[in-house]
Fold:
Amino acid sequence: MPGENLSRDEARERAALLSVDGYEVSLDLRSAVGEGQGEPRTFRSVTTIRFRCGEPGASSFADLVAPTVTSVTLNGRDLDPGQVFDGSRITLEDLAAENELTVDAQCAYSRTGEGMHRFVDPEDGEVYLYTQYEPADARRVFANFEQPDLKAPYRFEVRAPEGWTAWSNGAGELADGVWRFAETKPVSTYITCVVAGPYHYVTDSYERVLDDGTKLEIPLGAMCRKGLAPHFDADDVFLITKQGLDFFHEHFDYPYPFGKYDQAFVPEYNLGAMENPGMVTFREEYIFRGKVTQASYEGRANTIMHEMAHMWFGDLVTMEWWDDLWLKESFADFMGTFANVGATRFGNAWITFANRRKAWAYRADQLPSTHPVTADIRDLQDAKLNFDGITYAKGASVLKQLVAYVGQDAFLEGARRYFKRHAYGNTRLGDLLSVLAETSGRDMTAWSRSWLQTAGVNSLTPQVLLDADGTVAELAVLQEAAETHPALRPHRVAVGLYRRTPAGDLERYARVEADVEGPRTVVDGLAGAEAPELVLVNDDDLTYCKTRFDETSLATLREHLDALTDPLARALCWSALWNMTRDALLPARDFTALVLRFAGRESEIGVLQMLHAWAESALVHYTAPAGRATGEALLAEGALRELRAAEPGSEHQLAWARFFAHTAGTESALALLKGLLDGTETIPGLEVDQELRWAFLEPLTAHGIADERVLADELARDDTASGKRHQVRCLAARPSAAVKAQAWAQVVESDTLSNALVEATIAGFDQPSQRELTAPYAEKYFAVIERIWQERSIQIGMDVVRGLFPSFQDRRETLDATDAWLTAHADAAPALRRLVLESRDDLARALRGQECDAAAAGR
Structure:
């Protein structure tokens, strides 16, 4: 990573000096196949950039990360690569008003998912390539000016091995052994893309008559590895794609501008997906090899919609610098759910958003690294880490609040004006706020200051005062903020009052919307109402806040949570209870008891799966050590009870089966898993397919029941890339000191593993049931992380620093060791310190939760 950073100040200086007219990029990828190459395996990249300089005679630089540069030619002058190229930059001196730069380089294939990633399929030996650039890895594939505000059109050509197909942002044709692609619209470097290999490719088309009577035709394509083709449900991908294109055309009034629309599901992908215009890339795990719940299909549809929204928010109009990353990611995250609800079969997607996406935001917003939605991004390392829960989920939540604030019509009209006014350009915060002020008639300055330019999350708690006759005399909302981020914001909320009906259902009988400001707000319109059993202060999830409960409401939830008939209200209550657990206001054992009592009657499968994840986290992080064994047994017993009670063959049965595997630690639970694997045990309706087999094998391996031979046999049964990742994870999960030493060495002392296998090895290494085995690695972790950060790519560095932090060594000594490292490494890379600070905060929060749980055990 040294020398590869780029500061905001450098980018601004270069943008003020240069403007780019176009790129021509020629890649020879024939070296991707065949033997005999050493490491790094390289490919030839020849780039010609035409650009202008506002100050003739000035100097600047181009970006390139490559093992070697063969030649550099600037305006007909041959420059000495040894003099002008330092490994990440090419110095350009004495620039003319109009310039032409040609760089001939040998660039390296990647095994970390950054740049040109090369994957060899263990199933058939086929090689697959794809690029991934965000925020600044296009320079690993071709020379460029790597910053979002130096947009330009691109022409790509690719020489690929015989029998391969190549794709890029524009439509391509093969002639004389070369794939040549249509010139793109002006776009940023990080959203250009090349995919090449023997991919399985399916086509379709989208047609729409526009308002002016013209016919819009968009060729559609979808692809995956040949080994995944039998599982590829391309028809459903195309269905969601067409529904999304209809939805965005109806709401944005700006036709899709990038020609074709290909979607590639690629192996070993670091992200969920990437919005390259005309050539969107997704992680191939969105192709389901076994039975999954509707929550998985909803998640895929949400991602398809998210990336499609980027065609307008991010690709057509792009932020000037990564400070305003929210201008694309927050909008895409909001629009993903907005479109899912408005256009697809997933009409309850806002429930998933409230329960899952906002949980990510709440966690991120309480870390010491929290930041405003509009962040202060000093350099590329800052930018890489800011693809976080604040930029995505909090930003989307804030936009949901904005829609409530200005109205949906004004919000969408603002978007339409924004696209037309800034098409193919770059923007800042003020550009969007100005159009929203125009369409809504509201002053956006104060709203922006409160919601976009301050960090932290507020808590809202109801305060109910009753008259002598038992009716509501006054209902107020109390607002609090953390001492570190004390801002109290204006909230547009719906306050709902709930009581049980004669049939026992807990239903809303009164609702008012109110503007909450300051520490205490009296809500008008509820005086005289019948006394509520439950008050929900963010009913319908209009704002972004942590919801708290008064004593009566909390008591009602403890006894009747499952009686709430509205699934969104239930999801909001579960989310609030989980936040209370994380904040050490509700003992972990109480939360798990609520899950065991009520989760079996949860109708929303996405909420149920989130409850499973939270209950597992409550057990391994927030439960007092003395109570873990009992808690694990109770969760396993409860999971098995619900598994047997679930409708045979249902998605709820599948969800409980997976949760049972996660909680299995007792002898009887593990014996049942083993029986389900070998066929000596059955549960009516439960199909133990290949993915579920691996889910059962991991706990069996971690507890020493399945050994290396069993895993080898399973890999022979599933000799695929997916099977290999599962096997690697399970191998690292074995309860042996020698196994842990080997896994540590493979990740920390070697760089031979690909990004996907690094991730799998870390996941297997760090088992909550093996705290004693991994204890010696706490000290080793702090000894190596700075070296790892310096020597490895930023993606691998992030994976190692986050994944190997000794979070299961949850005692005061680990917290002290973390503080000692932070004190001794005050000058370490800010991004590295941020990762350690975040892990430290999670550990401190876990210890507070354990203290709360221990106190509850003694009451």
